[in-house]
Amino acid sequence: MSDSAVLTAPPTLQVLHDDGDLVAIDKPAGLLVHASTLDAHEALNALDLLQAQLGRSLWPLHRLDKGTSGVLLFATSAQAAAHWGAAFREGRVRKRYVALVRGWPPAHGRIDHPLARDPERPSAGQPMREAVTLFERLACFEWPFAVDGRHATSRYALVAVEPLTGRRHQIRRHFKHIAHPLIGDATHGKGVHNRAVAQWLGVQRLWLHAQAMQLPRADGGAVRIEAPCGAEWGRLQTEGVPEPIPTCS
Q1: Which one-letter DSSP state was computed for residue 230?
Q2: Annotated catalytic residue: which of 18, 65, 148, 219?
Q3: 3 is annotated as an active-site residue
Q4: Which pLDDT tens digit goes with each residue over 44-62?
Q5: Closest CA to 159 of 91, 69, 98
Q6: pTM for the whole thing?
Q7: Cα–Cα distance between 55 and 61 in angstroms, integer?
Q8: Which CATH class is domain 14-237?
Q9: Disulfide check for 73: which of 47, 61, 124, 208 has CB 3.0–4.6 Å away?
Q10: Which one-letter DSSP state was computed for residue 91?
């Protein structure tokens, strides 16, 4: 099972913000940020599509995994890329994600667990880098299907996540570390849960969405850019949920 939804045609990208220095889009699940040898067969990527759509050169400021949807930022010049890139490196960009995970994690938590630089390779022998993630549980679900033969139902939770560092696959690896892997994560998750939830909700995707980014302005204020959760997230409010849950806002 893939981490990502399948794109069947080149999408017109939704521009959330464009101020001359910074452009933000709502990246659909299943789209690469830029061309990569790791996905050499993929003909589409957000950078090429957006440059063609806007008719100008752009510089990606950060990564979202292919299967992750939500706020994706680009600079419009090398100078702007250096400025905003420094803000990312210095931890001055705040990021909020929402995710669907296996089980019911604590109401609040801090995951402080170093990660190897390259998640595609064994961690042994790699330098370990500091990685910290905060989370808040938004809702708990108990759905009427069995994944584990010991239980007649299966439990999942919607969480809000704030990574304080920017390691590759950080959210996915951290929730695996605390035994609450993300649903739809073919690399760090559990295939039996991925398949069961995809059948129950009728949606196959990595359940991770970059909901908001907040960047510092030179005047001391902040630029906040938000991407509403897609329609598929609304299914969490109707499929077997005993009471209404908070919206993704």
Answers
A1: P
A2: 65
A3: no
A4: 999 999 999 999 999 999 9
A5: 98
A6: 0.89
A7: 18
A8: alpha beta
A9: 61
A10: T
